[in-house]
Write a structure and sequence with these properties.
Layout (H helix, E strand, L loop, with lengths): L22 H4 L7 H25 L4 H16 L15 H15 L4 H15 L7 H5 L2 E11 L1 H6 L6 H27 L6 E5 L2 E6 L4 H19 L4 E10 L8 H17 L8 H6 L24 E4 L5 E4 L1 H13 L5 E6 L10 H7 L2 E6 L17 E6 L14 E5 L11 H6 L8 E8 L2 H7 L2 E2 L3 E2 L3 H24 L12 E6 L2 E7 L3 H15 L8 E8 L5 H15 L8 E4 L2 E4 H18 L8 H19 L8 H18 L3 H16 L5 H15 L8
C-alpha cells in the first residue's frame, strides 16, 4: 500500500493455466478446490516436461538457446504458480522467483566456491535472525550490480513526423523501437557474457538487469559502442543512458531492494544529463562537424523532417511526389507492411555487423540482429538482410496460436511476445470517415498507470515502516504490468472492428510497459478507454493503489501526428493527472473520475436515444449546453463547488414544456424519456447540469452528419 496501511481486500488467485490471452486465464478469481488444483498442477508439469524434452533433443548443442528456451517454457507453465505457499504470502510466481534466483547465481559465479558457501551461511543466519559477530559487515559487502538502460528520444522519434503517409509508417516506427530496445539489450548482455535470465524487465525503451561486479569495468565501453552506433544511424535523435549501482548482500533482504532500485534510477537520470561524455575526445568530431549536405532541400525527408544523404523521391497514395529517407521508408516497408500480415517474427542473432546508415534493418544489424517475418509456416524463412548469417534464432509469436517455421537448420527458441500487430489498412483520413457516423474525426487516446514509480518504491510497504519488497516481487510486478498492456490491450483493441467487413479500426501506435497510445474513429475511443480502465481494475483485483488515467482529443485525418500526441498528452497531464488521486479521464476539455465518466456516458446514450425518436425536440441538446455554460460562468466567478442560478428554473420550465408537447402529440415513449431527464435534474437540484451539458455535446457530435466538415 502506498500509504503504508493495510487495506482489507478479498484474496484473488490466478487460475493455474498455461499463459494465454484469455480472460479466464489472466484475471484473478476465487481459489480453486484442492482436487482442481492437483489436476491443474499435473497438466502444467506435463507441459513443462514436454518443453524440456524438446529443448534437450533440439538444442543440446547450443547452451544459450537451451537456457533461453527453458526460460520461455517456465514462463508459459509457471507464471501463475506461486513460488511458496505455506507460511508465505503467495504473490511471487515460480517463474519470476526462478529466473531471479538464476540471475543472482550468475552474479555470484565469479566468486570462489568457498566464499559462496560462507556467504550462504551468513545469509541463512540473517534470515533466521541468528546472526553472529561479523555477519553485519559481511552482509554490507557488494554482491551484484543493478543496471538500468534508458533509450532517450523515443517520444520525439515516434511522434515527430508529418502526416505524410503517417499511417503506413507509424506502427512500423513504433515496432522498430521495440526491436531496437531488444537489440541494444542483447548487445550489452553479449558484451558482458550474460544470459537473458538476468533481465528483470525490458520494454518501452527501458531495460533493467543484474550483473556481476566485474561488469562495472566493461559498461562504460559498451555504452560508448552503443552511442557510436546510434549516432551513425540516428544522429542525436536516440541515445542510450546506462546507470548502475552496487547491491550488497543485505540489499536482497525483504524490504531493502527498493532503496537500490531508487539509487539506480538516480544514477540513470544523471547519466541522461551528461549525454555523450562517454565518447571522450571523440565527442567534438562526432557531434560538432557540419553535415556534408548542409541545408540542401533535396536531402530533406518529408516524413521525419531530417536531412539525410539517402533521401529520394517517392509518391504517396494521392500520387503527389515527396522525398523520403531510407530509414523512414523502411518503417513503412518492410516493417509496417509485413507486421500486420504476420503471425510472428524470427530474430536472427549473430555477430554485430558494421553497416552504412540506411534502413532500420541496417541499424539492427549493427547490434547483431536480423529479421524474418513469419506468415506461412510451410514457407522457409526469408531474412530481410540476406547477407546476415545468424548463429541462432529467437521466434516471437505475436499471439497464442504461435508460429513454427519448418526446415530451419539453426537452434530455434520459441517465445510468446504479445504484440498489437493488426492495424487498419487505410490512411488516417480514410479511417476518420470509415464509420460514417457523427463528425468525421479521429480520436487520439493516451493512457498510463498513475504513480507507477511510487508503486515500485512504496507499494510493498506495510505498517510500522515494514516492507515486503524483494527483487522477485519487483520482477513479478513488472511482468504483470507488461502482460496487461502488451497482451490484454492487444485483445481489447483487436475486438473493435468494422461491423460488416470485420476489419480492425484501432491503430495502436504504442501499447506496452504501463501506457498506451491509440488512434481510431473518435466515436469508438471513449468506450475503448472505459473498457481498458475497467479491465485494469479487474486485473489488479480492485487494488485501490493501482489505477490508470487517460486523455482523449479529436483530430482530422491529415493532422500532424506529433501535434496529436501533444494534444492528447496535455489532456492527460493537464486535466486528468491534475485531479486529486487521479484515476481519471479527460474528454471534451474536462476530466472526470472513471465512475463519474460512466455516468456521463450513460447520459449521452439516453440523449442519443431521445434524439432518434419521432418528434424529438431539436433544441434540447443546445438547451442543456446553454444551461451548463450559465452554471459554469457563475461557478467561475464565485469559485464555489455548488452554485445557484436561473438555469435551474429556465431548464425546468423549457424541458417540462417539451415533455408536455410530446404528451399532447401522443408521443408516449418520448414523453416518458423526457420526464426521466426532468426528474434526474430535479433530484439533485441541477447540481450535475455540467455533466448533462457535456453529455449533450457528446450526443451532438454523434448525431451530426458525417459530411459536415466545417465543425
Amino acid at each position: 500500500a502506498l500509504d503504508g496501511q493495510e487495506k482489507a481486500a478479498p484474496a484473488h488467485y490466478l487460475p493455474l493455466e498455461e499463459l494465454a490471452l484469455e480472460e479466464g486465464t489472466l484475471f484473478a478469481d476465487d481459489a480453486w478446490n484442492e482436487e482442481k488444483q492437483r489436476e491443474a498442477y499435473a497438466r502444467l508439469v506435463e507441459t513443462l516436461d514436454g518443453e524440456a524434452r524438446r529443448a534437450r533433443r533440439d538444442l543440446a548443442d547450443s547452451p544459450e538457446a537451451y537456457l533461453e528456451q527453458m526460460l520461455a517454457a517456465l514462463q508459459r507453465a509457471t507464471w501463475c504458480v506461486p513460488s511458496a505457499y505455506y507460511y508465505s504470502l503467495p504473490d511471487v510466481s515460480l517463474y519470476d522467483h526462478s529466473r531471479m534466483t538464476a540471475a543472482l547465481a550468475v552474479c555470484l559465479s565469479e566468486q570462489e566456491p568457498a566464499q559462496i558457501s560462507e556467504m550462504l551461511g551468513v545469509v541463512r543466519r540473517d534470515f533466521l535472525k541468528k546472526s553472529e559477530k561479523d555477519d553485519a559487515e559481511k552482509l554490507s559487502a557488494p554482491a551484484a550490480l543493478l543496471v538500468g538502460g534508458d533509450i532517450s528520444g523515443i517520444q520525439d522519434f515516434i511522434y515527430t513526423i508529418s502526416s505524410k503517409e503517417a499511417a503506413k509508417s507509424l506502427r512500423g516506427r513504433s515496432f522498430y523501437l521495440q526491436l531496437l530496445t531488444e537489440a541494444v539489450l542483447r548487445f550489452v548482455l553479449r558484451g558482458l557474457g550474460l544470459p537473458t535470465t538476468n533481465v528483470i524487465y525490458s520494454g518501452g525503451g527501458h531495460f533493467y538487469f543484474l550483473a556481476p561486479l566485474s561488469a562495472a569495468e566493461k559498461l562504460a565501453e559498451l555504452q560508448a559502442n552503443v552511442t557510436r552506433k546510434l549516432l551513425k544511424h540516428h544522429g542525436t535523435g536516440l541515445y542510450l543512458a546506462l546507470g548502475f549501482t552496487e547491491v550488497p548482500y543485505a540489499g536482497f533482504r525483504k524490504g531493502q531492494f527498493p532503496k537500490y532500485w531508487g539509487e539506480m534510477h538516480q544514477k540513470l537520470s544523471r547519466a541522461k544529463q551528461k549525454r555523450y561524455t562517454e565518447l571522450g575526445p571523440e565527442l567534438y568530431d562526432r557531434l560538432f562537424v557540419p553535415e556534408k549536405h548542409g541545408g540542401n532541400q533535396d536531402h530533406l525527408c518529408a516524413v521525419c523532417g531530417q536531412e539525410r544523404e539517402d533521401a529520394h523521391k517517392a509518391t504517396d497514395t494521392e500520387e503527389e511526389e515527396y522525398r523520403v529517407c531510407a530509414l523512414c521508408e523502411s518503417f513503412a516497408d518492410p516493417l509496417g507492411k509485413h507486421l500486420p500480415l504476420s503471425r510472428g517474427l524470427a530474430l536472427g542473432l549473430g555477430e554485430p555487423r558494421e553497416r552504412q546508415p540506411g534502413s532500420a534493418l541496417d541499424a539492427l544489424a549493427e547490434f547483431g540482429v536480423a529479421l524474418a517475418f513469419i506468415k506461412d509456416e510451410s514457407a522457409p524463412l526469408e531474412w530481410l538482410l540476406p547477407d546476415f548469417k545468424p548463429e541462432r534464432v529467437v521466434l516471437w509469436a505475436f499471439d497464442d496460436s504461435g508460429a513454427d517455421p519448418r526446415g530451419l537448420a539453426l537452434p530455434l527458441v520459441k517465445q510468446q511476445r504479445y504484440t498489437v500487430n493488426r492495424v487498419p489498412e487505410m490512411t488516417f483520413d480514410e479511417l476518420a470517415k470509415v464509420l460514417k457516423e457523427g463528425i468525421p474525426r479521429l480520436g487520439v487516446l493516451r493512457m498510463d498507470v498513475d504513480n507507477l514509480g511510487m508503486v515500485f518504491r512504496k507499494g510493498f510497504d506495510r505498517p510500522k515502516d515494514e516492507s515486503i519488497a524483494t527483487l522477485a516481487r519487483v520482477s513479478t510486478l513488472s511482468f504483470q504490468m507488461s502482460l496487461f498492456f502488451e497482451g490484454w490491450v492487444k485483445r481489447i483493441t483487436e475486438q473493435i472492428t468494422e461491423q460488416k467487413a470485420g476489419k480492425p479500426l484501432i491503430y495502436s501506435v504504442y501499447a506496452g510497459g504501463d501506457d498506451v497510445f491509440l488512434i481510431g474513429p473518435w466515436s469508438r475511443m471513449p468506450g475503448l478507454a472505459r473498457q481498458i480502465a475497467a479491465d485494469f481494475k479487474r486485473y489488479t483485483g480492485g487494488n485501490p493503489d493501482l489505477h490508470l488515467s487517460g486523455g482523449m482529443t479529436f483530430i482530422h485525418g491529415k493532422y500532424p501526428v506529433y501535434q496529436a500526441a501533444r494534444d492528447a498528452g496535455r489532456a492527460l497531464d493537464d486535466l486528468a493527472k491534475r485531479m486529486e488521486g487521479k484515476d481519471a479521464f479527460a474528454f471534451l476539455d474536462h476530466a472526470w473520475k472513471w465512475d463519474a465518466f460512466d455516468g456521463v456516458a450513460e447520459k449521452q446514450e439516453r440523449l442519443v436515444k431521445i434524439m432518434k425518436m419521432d418528434g424529438a425536440p431539436k433544441s434540447m441538446l443546445q438547451l442543456l449546453q446553454r444551461l451548463a455554460e450559465q452554471e459554469a460562468k457563475k461557478r467561475q466567478r464565485h469559485g464555489e463547488k455548488r452554485v445557484w442560478g436561473p438555469w435551474m428554473w429556465i431548464g425546468d420550465y423549457q424541458l417540462t414544456r417539451m415533455e408536455e408537447k410530446a404528451s399532447r402529440e401522443k408521443k408516449d415513449e418520448l414523453a416518458v424519456e423526457l420526464q426521466g431527464i426532468v426528474k434526474a435534474l430535479r433530484k439533485n437540484l441541477y447540481e450535475d447540469i455540467h455533466d448533462w451539458g457535456k453529455a449533450a455535446r457528446w450526443a451532438q457530435l454523434v448525431m451530426r452528419k458525417s459530411n459536415d466538415e466545417n465543425n
